[in-house]
C-alpha cells in the first residue's frame, strides 16, 4: 500500500531533480501501482521487472532498435531506455 506520505516524498524528489536539471530515474518498478504513482508525479524514466527481466547483451541492440523505431512493446519486454513507449493494443 502506498501512503500519502510516500506519494508526497516521491513527488518532492522528482521535482527537486527536475529543478536541479538532473532528471531522475526510478528503479525497481515491479507493480502497476508503482508506475501509476510515478506517472502522476511526472517521472520521465523508470526501469524494473515490470518492463523487462535482464536482457542478454546480444539481444539488447535488437530491443533498443525496436523501441526507438516506435514499435509497440508489450509488458515484460525492454522499454526502460528512455525511449518513448506506446501502449500495446490488446
Point out poorly predicted stretches: 75-90
Assign the structural class, choosing from mainly alpha, mainly beta, alpha/beta, alpha+beta, or little secondary structure: mainly alpha
Mean pLDDT: 76
How many helices? The count is 3
Strand content: under 5%
Spatial strand arrangement across the major sheet: 1-2
Shape: globular
SSE series = HEHEH
**What characterizes the major β-sheet?**
2 strands, parallel
What fraction, in percent, of the residue positions are helical? Answer: 40-55%
What does it look like?
With 90 residues, the protein is mainly alpha-helical. The protein has 2 domains: 47 residues, no CATH class; 38 residues, no CATH class. It is built from 3 helices and 2 strands, in the order αβαβα. The longest helix is centred in the first third of the chain and has 16 residues. The protein starts with a helix and ends in a 22-residue tail after the last helix.
Helix and strand topology:
Elements: H1 4-19, E1 25-26, H2 32-40, E2 45-46, H3 57-68
Parallel strand pairs: 1-2
